[in-house]
## 1
Amino acid sequence: MNFLVKLEKKIGKYAIRNLPMYMLATYAIGYIVQLINSDVTFFLSLNPQAILHGQVWRLFSWVLIPPDSGNIIFTAIMLFFYFSISRTLEQTWGSFYFNFYIFMGLIFTVLGAFCMFGYSELFLQEKMAFVNANMQMAYGEIPAIYGGSWFYATYSTLFSTYYVNMSIFLAYAATYPDMQVLIMFIIPVKVKYLGIIYSIILVLEAFGMGIMGLFVIGASLLNFVVFFIMTRKSLRITPKMRARQKDFRKKTAAASQARKVAKHKCAICGRTAEEYPNLEFRFCSKCEGNYEFCQDHLFSHKHFKRSDM
């Protein structure tokens, strides 16, 4: 049995229902915070150096950094689009599988940030010193609350929910390859072609950013590869099919229970111990045969004789 199928049976009931709505609310909070103070991004970002120096809230607060903060109308349209396809995936896969996909993407992103930190500490000391010196000359000393290093403060802002959303779109394209979307609300294009185009763009973008791009983009999209390898069989069974299977098993078990022979049954009135648990049942020693009677008929019944049978 697939690992995720077993895991769903154990903890599936704890899955967050309607997770896309919570994700949308998180983005909305992030936009409001950025409108109030754009520098707050340095305070919320996934900065591994700052985390190791006690700023542990960054392990979670980076999800407040919205995927885009440009044109508000374009952003609203894109957020509605991602919300729509997220709802579709949740309804198709079920809440547990969608939760697993999203949280695995978040965890891989955090791991990617720490891999970037380890690589930088080992191989990029000169680059770090150069960036910190130039940024300090231009903007002064960076506050400790913002991470204490211009190098990590700059690269850490790249770890946002943008690439997690991209992984949602790739998952949608893989699940509904022949679904059509309207480019510019006019041109119909199948999602699988957009998925291929976006994949190529992401690969080129990752290599264009150098080794940092592999950490930032690769970590965020690794969940797409891992998830579809793990669920190549189990996703063939939709939530509706699983619900029908569960209902069928429940009805089969009930029918099987109904067919069971009662342990105690009165030979006169037919009442059973299952139906009347407070009744007492006894065998009659004067009856010829295996006859049992309830307490109301134990002494009042006519004794059975083999000659009467």
Note: The chain has two domains: 3-243, 261-308.
## 2
Amino acid sequence: MTTQSMTPDNLFGLSGKTALVTGGATGIGRMAAEGLVAAGARVLICSRKEDACKTAADELNALGHEGKAEGFGGDVASEEGIAALVEGVGGRCDRLDILMNNAGTSWGMPLGEFPYAAWDRVMRVNVTGLFQLTQGLLPLLERAASDDDPARVVNVGSVMGETPHGDRAYSYAASKAAVHHLTRILASELAQRRITVNALAPGPFVSKMTAFATADEEVRSRVGAQVPLGRVGRPEDIAAAMQFLCGRGGAYVTGAILPLSGGINVETGPDLFQEAYE
């Protein structure tokens, strides 16, 4: 292996690649989109809020990175919306190197009061939408895939899909556990097609979904203090993970659930024998 092949641009650069980030106007999707644009990719950003996606794309393009962003509308909450999104992506590119399934929703209510409709919507967006969109975009992903450089699918799970943290968001936690398992299934089935499938499992990051816990600086600091590494996630944590998984450096990784939770994923609870040591 030559020295040139070990350069950061070669390992993590994404020049010439096209990516789709669902829910990419805000939060983790926006962090990921910036990381992909910074690495040189053409990034298609979509969500139900088309204007927000176009604004986000304009803001990313104004940063002067090598890559470029484009914003448009797309909805993964219905069969019709997914079909329209697949058609829209196909009209914008003839191959898709990277698919980031980030669009998601949540709902919180106490046990005993959790509504059926809310459970159904969370599962429809977070699991059904993710699966059906990936399935619909397989032809475009396969066109970009090769032995040397697979196409990439990155799903957004959650540390709540790994650990028993319900926090009243029962359907969200269950949906993210399903995302993790589906990621492994698809990784197994799509490896022969030269498509890698991995997932991020974030802990607390600043986003609209977590605004109740992260929008206020004082509350955010208290939440971060409960994380083993002592803080909430930062944009560069997401951006760097995406550059790794989608660049040449991550070409041999599939079926991984990448913990971006500051150690929450390995918390084991109280020391059962602490009293015996004192």
Note: The first helix runs from residue 8 to 12.
